[in-house]
Inverse folding.
């Protein structure tokens, strides 16, 4: 029973990373990819991500409202790539879920996925803004 509880706690921690964990994941990913120039690239890539994310999430919401699945697919795919590039794996996975559900035109799943994406964006935004100070 003790192992099961430990597993659940670890899974919950992975599923809901703290801001510090998000920051650390981003740092590690950029250091791996960019080497010595990672600090400068983090500022630039974080800024670009933050500028693009809100309009792309809005594009997904608008696409859902008008059943424009192609628009949702484009926005989700774009945001998936930019978030994966800076090490935001959970965010990228949510974008993938939106993209795949849109391709399948699963409107019943899209609303909750987009809502989860917005929630995760709030967490990610807070973490990334600390890099930009």
């Amino acid at each position: 029973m003790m192992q099961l509880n430990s597993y659940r706690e670890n899974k919950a921690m992975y599923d809901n990373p703290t801001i510090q964990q998000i920051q650390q994941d981003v740092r590690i990913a950029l250091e791996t990819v960019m080497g010595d120039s990672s600090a400068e690239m983090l500022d630039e890539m974080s800024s670009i991500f933050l500028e693009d994310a809100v309009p792309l999430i809005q594009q997904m919401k608008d696409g859902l409202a008008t059943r424009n699945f192609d628009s949702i697919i484009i926005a989700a795919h774009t945001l998936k790539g930019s978030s994966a590039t800076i090490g935001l794996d959970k965010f990228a996975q949510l974008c993938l879920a939106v993209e795949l559900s849109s391709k399948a035109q699963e409107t019943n799943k899209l609303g909750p996925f987009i809502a989860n994406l917005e929630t995760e964006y709030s967490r990610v935004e807070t973490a990334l803004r600390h890099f930009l100070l």
Remarks:
- The two ends are 45 Å apart (CA to CA).
- The CA atoms of residues 31 and 66 lie 41 Å apart.
- The longest helix spans residues 38-66.
